[in-house]
Request: fold
Amino acid sequence: MVNEFETKKMICELGRRMYNKGYVAANDGNISYRMGNGRFLCTPTGVSKGFLKPDDIATVDDTGKQIGGGKPRTSEILLHLEIFHELPDIDAVAHAHPPHATAFAIAGVDVPSCILPEVEILIGRVPIAEYDTPGGKDFAETILPHLRRKCNTILLANHGAVACDKDLEHAYFHLETLDMYCQILLLAKQIGKVQQISEPKVRELLDLKKRIGIPDERFDCQGERCVMGGGDEFLKGFSMQPIPQHQTSADGHGRGSGIADLPSQQGQPQPQGESLPRFPAVVAGRTIPGGDYLGASSTTARKRAAEDETERLVQIITEKIIQMSAG
Ligand SMILES: [Zn+2]
Reply:
């Protein structure tokens, strides 16, 4: 049973983080949580999310009618309820106007995918919902097609972003991940080059995502376009060459300009695949089914290389999630 007061405190804490990150100005943004039995907690309207107190949090029923709390509920509750009604597994929603992400939403330019591994795993594709006047039922329904495509993070045209998950902190984290990603994309645009991860490597990420249990509409994708497509307008004019892949020779050594090629290292014993450190097959607190996945013995150097790459990726994602959990 979820403790109501603790949940209200958590909503206040996330409101503070949102405000301190600059994702909301003045009284913008809202957060909600499904308490069960048709009751939902949500932030009030007309109060800065940076200075919320537990007593400020409103309680509404599943039509949005206020049934508790000292201050009037957010005017955007229908957007939140649309998510709760459509996705029974989702218990938390966060909405804000994170500037880098909102820049894509006002430009009407799709956020490209297949660029950062963590983003692919944690949020995947981020669509832009059609514009409508905030607050009404029509506005709330703009996100419906994207919820049905299993998106957990959606941009709202000329407005901001909304994200959802099973718990409050992860709903908020999606906004952080999205805004950081959009900031990095905009920086890369200034450098003038963005490289996508190759399709086979994106499929590895999707495979990992499936094992972790995070939905993605691309799990059943057949063609390359289906996996890699989207964000074409942003990528236009950039190099579309996939990033170069790590090469491993038959003896398990990497080729290229690594330490093994230095004159002082020639003839010296080099690290072998078997001596590489192992990482636990656990991501986001969830054990990946088939526990031997990361330690499976390989029959070819090619498979060995693919496993090493996966290990490296799992380590990066695990570290990222540990960082996130640490706040
Ligand atoms: Zn808004």
Residues 255-260, 273-287, 290-299 have pLDDT under 50 and may be disordered. The first strand starts at residue 30 and ends at 36. Residues 28, 76, 95, 97, 134, 159-160 surround zinc ion (CB under 6 Å). Residues 301-325 form the longest helix (25 residues).
